[in-house]
Amino acid sequence: MVKYLFKIVTCLAFTYQIQSVVAQQDKRIDRVEPLNWWVGMQYHNVQLIVHGNNIADFTPNISYKGVTLEKINKVENPNYLFLDINISSNAKSGTFPIIFKKKGEKDILFNYELKDRNKGIKAQGVTSKDFIYLLMPDRFANGDTTNDIVTSLHETGLHRDTLTSRHGGDLQGVINHLDYLDQLGITALWMTPALENDEHSTSYHGYANTENYHMDPRYGTNELFKTLTDSLHRRGMKMVMDVVPNHFGDQHWTVVDLPMKDWVHQWPTYTNSNFRDQVDFDPYGADIDRKTMVNGWFDTHMPDMNESNPYLQKYILQSNLWWIEYAGVDGFRIDTYPYNDPNFMAWWAQQIKAEYPNFSMFGETFVNGAVNQAAFAQGDMIHRGLDTHLPGVTDFQSKIAITDAMTQPFSWDNGAMKIYNNLSKDFIYQDPTRNVVFLDNHDLPRFYSVVGQNSDKLKSALTWLLTTRGIPQMYYGTEIYMKGFTDPDGYVREDFPGGWLGDKQDKFTEKGRSQSENELFNYISTLAQYRKKNPVLQSGKLMQYVPQDGIYVYFRYNDSKTVMLIMNTNDKEFNLKTDRFSQRMSNFHTGKNIISGEQYSNIQNIKVPSFTTLAIELQ
Fold it and tell me: Does 70 participate in catalysis according to the annotation?
């Protein structure tokens, strides 16, 4: 009985000691990242970043089967330790203590968790089979008003009447409208960044993250983001996460308290990037121009991260791997890709593909010219001795081409010729079908406004978008004729009508849309659903003919189907004689309009209305 009581007292004393240590931990260690890791991952040499007041004065110890603390890295700032741990293949999931010791002071205990891997759908990759819908969470729908204002963050304003302020959209708002996206024929969702952006000035767009492992609480929680991704997967849809390795927000916790001076690129005085992507591959370029391009800051409150720093390299990579495994993300869109360190980005891409072979990535390449754009895509650039290992890019050159086709008169090298000329250069890509084609996005004027609010031109361009090579992406609200230019700032980022309680109109519903809006919605949906069911528009071969008289003709075809696309960029109806296209049409006699269902009994002569792209399945 005495021994039994002694055990109880000892146990209670130990429990009290642990509680005391945990209480001390809250003061001395404020974070350890990654938040957790998983057993059985190929990436098993993990570097923990530990932050706490003078934590470098303590010596950490780990005693857990299958986990080895291989190296303790002290850096310039004593508030940091970087711990290299090896998680062996025989390690089991569970929680283990990291004990920090210092002579004369109580031990600090931090419990770290190894989890079993996410058994759900993940890392599927986004391909030419998909149709991406781009939205800004703050501007799409407010599904949870309780998180509109978070008083612990720097910015607590919510002003829907001001385009540069926060409006209150969130992850729950997106979840609430997945049926809408499904009806539209969307197969993949790309949101602008949803990580915490706790900046002093508004950062509703998400491109100045202050956390790498936490959603912005004004959008929701990590768990809710995972719920959104799981909900997409249950519908056969995918999640594209927008990542920003080039820069953090200046209120990022590692920037406020730098681990070392070269965590960010330092300059004697503030220095912007020169934004000259050419210097990345210019064989005659000067070192100072390359340095300014890659190391210059994107903005005064977006410090440029030093991606040659080995600690930062692992911090960025591990946070990206973490989100794929935790939430089941299927692909990355990479912001401001040309401004990153090219060697780091090549290594980064290889590490991600090694863990998730089907995962896809496409980089934002807002550059001039197809050669410039292709220089950043996967493939050997011999004069640089570098393969970026970047599967695809955002195809700004195709966007420029379709814009000119819809807005410029046809001539020897203008109008529809721009589309033909652009595609004729596809030989410079390793695989152009991995490029993302689009009409507009959150940084550009809305296409409907660019074409003078001409609904026929918009429909024509949308038909091209869903039938040309590559991965089509559409910006939110295009399907209901949302319009706007980038000046004054923000007009391309207005709220989706119906996303907020009390909105006068609800464009998420057929009843809330006008007749013309429903016609456009159904036009897109019909074509998108056809594309979803017919591989010919996903992976079929493409053949194009030199445009004549403002008419551009191309075909998508495979062994089972052939679709003929006829784009009339003229302001008058055109009677097209099709004998020139016999290479692709010789075996066909009739056709069917994919969108209207109209039958063509004579495909030797086809009337094409003005500003129209006909999509005809040949029969």
Answer: no
